[in-house]
Amino acid sequence: MSAFVAFDHVSLAYDDSGNAIEDIDLDIHEGEFVAFVGPSGCGKSTFMKLCTGLHAPTAGSIKVDGVAVTEPLKISGMAFQNANLLPWRTTLDNVLLPLEIVKPYRHQFRKRRKEFEGWARDLLKTVGLADYEDQYPWQLSGGMQQRASICRALIHQPRLLMLDEPFGALDAFTREELWCVLRDLWEAQRFTVVLVTHDLREAAFLADTVYVMSSRPGRVVERREIDLPRPRALDITYDKPFIDLVHELRAQIGEIRST
Amino acid sequence: MNVKRQTTERLAPWIAVVVLTLIWELTVRLFDVPSFIFPSAWETATALVTYAGPIGMHSWQTLWTTLVGFALGVAVGLGLGFIVGSSRFLYNACYPLLVGFNAIPKVAFVPILVVWFGIGSVPAILTAFLICFFPIVVNVATGLATLEPEMEDVLRVLGAKRMDVLLKIGLPRSLPYFFASLKVAITLAFVGTVVSETVASNQGIGYLMMSAGSQMRMGLVFAGLIVISAMAMVMYELFALLEKRMTAWAHRGQNR
Ligand SMILES: Nc1ncnc2c1ncn2[C@@H]1O[C@H](COP(=O)(O)OP(=O)(O)OP(=O)(O)O)[C@@H](O)[C@H]1O
Ligand SMILES: [Mg+2]
């Protein structure tokens, strides 16, 4: 199986202050769920920008689906660290936004609007926002905004889903609830997911592969396959194998920070 | 309590008008100012009623020329603002020019306009236009040019073209700026029209004041002043209302 996302010795320097990301060399397969963990400022968001083509690398090359990335991808959905919802649109209209942009939907938008709204409503329902469709983003709590932003990333059924600390601002309960939502969506559709997170439990629970990055300049210092059986229930996060795994990852991050 | 405060708040501007009128009337009487220098409020009111016919006709002239000039200003301002704000290069290139143009007193254009178009409504319309399009251009261009990169990224990862970004995010985002500038622009448009009428017209409030002034009928001159400011205030309130309607999201949390 050839790689869906292929990073070939990629580095990026924003300015003269040196590389933000250095010599990243990795392959992600179609349908794989990968997670990136690492200390703050190590270049995780930068990795996302490279992957989606928002930024061009200063060295090396990136291929997605066999094609070199030279401009922003058209097959990806992305949820950012901040929800970035548009304040003049209702939650429903915010979620519909990608369908107004992405081909082929953009040309069908007027004709199929009712149908599309149905998709958006279903999606909002799965993340528990059914009653908030017609509210404006500033009337929602931070966590609710983040959920809407995940819906927006998924509405056009992207083959590549990029999530940059989507659950970072949420309380522990909501976070675990949304892990399960994401798990179910992924089990059902099997898109490729790149998830950036600070939370090792989150990474271990959701991902097939966890990459650990070093502090700046960001390098991949560890690739870890998580072979816990799927589908995973939330309960496994309290079992010994899972806890041991998280401990090991934790120890690795500790080492990075001390050097 | 709350209702009471709301009514006082609503009444406040009217109270201010009444107080100001009283002070005006009293001062003129107290110091016995001759009416050909500074007419009293009462004389002004009398003039307003006596010459209601001509004042109405000239106000109508001023109003429609202002509105036509303003409409032109909005169209050109929106278009130019969109073009200038849509690219960093054009923004940098045009901004100093616009500022320079804005610094020219618009009354200096009136003689030129008279040479080109003759005396009448056209110079008034064009002066109103020239004076009012600048704030619109600046506000729309700034609104577009200060677009947050994060917002832009949301669309760019979907493969959006520059035009998509401008139409879906840039334009709606700059609407509050646009509507705020309309309030400023409409009052400026009145200034433009009246200035032009005083020098180059035989109609309009500006002309009326000019000719009344030359006959020392100061009551009528002041009546003209009152009419102009009343028209400007009404238009301002109209656009303030429109602004609130169209961009409620930008005033979130302020509860009207
Ligand atoms: N637009 C930019 N211009 C210049 N430097 C930048 C820019 N964006 C990020 N950097 C720098 O690149 C490095 C990596 O930043 P990045 O945002 O990728 O970190 P991160 O791993 O996502 O951190 P966090 O976990 O806190 O979100 C940082 O040192 C940051 O200062
Ligand atoms: Mg980040």
TrEMBL record, chain A:
The keyword Nucleotide-binding applies. InterPro entries: AAA+_ATPase, ABC_transporter-like_ATP-bd, ABC_transporter-like_CS, ABC_transporter_ATP-bind, P-loop_NTPase. Gene3D superfamilies: P-loop containing nucleotide triphosphate hydrolases. SMART domains: AAA. Keywords: ATP-binding, Nucleotide-binding, Transport. Residues 5-240 form the ABC transporter domain. GO terms for molecular function: ATP binding; ATP hydrolysis activity. It comes from the Bacteria. CDD domains: ABC_NrtD_SsuB_transporters. The keyword RNA-binding does not apply. Pfam families: ABC_tran. Coiled coil: none annotated. PANTHER family: ALIPHATIC SULFONATES IMPORT ATP-BINDING PROTEIN SSUB, TAURINE IMPORT ATP-BINDING PROTEIN-RELATED. Belongs to the ABC transporter superfamily. This is ABC transporter ATP-binding protein. It comes from Vreelandella salicampi.
UniProtKB/TrEMBL annotation, chain B:
It is found in: Cell membrane. It comes from the Bacteria. One of its GO terms (cellular component) is plasma membrane. CDD domains: TM_PBP2. Keywords: Cell membrane, Membrane, Transmembrane, Transmembrane helix, Transport. The chain crosses the membrane at residues 12-31, 63-85, 97-119, 125-147, 177-200, 220-242. GO terms for biological process: transmembrane transport. SUPFAM superfamilies: MetI-like (SSF161098). Its main location: membrane. Residues 59-239 form the ABC transmembrane type-1 domain. It is a multi-pass membrane protein. Pfam families: BPD_transp_1. Belongs to the binding-protein-dependent transport system permease family. PANTHER family: ABC TRANSPORTER PERMEASE PROTEIN, ALKANE SULFONATE ABC TRANSPORTER-RELATED, MEMBRANE SUBUNIT. This is ABC transporter permease. It comes from Vreelandella salicampi.
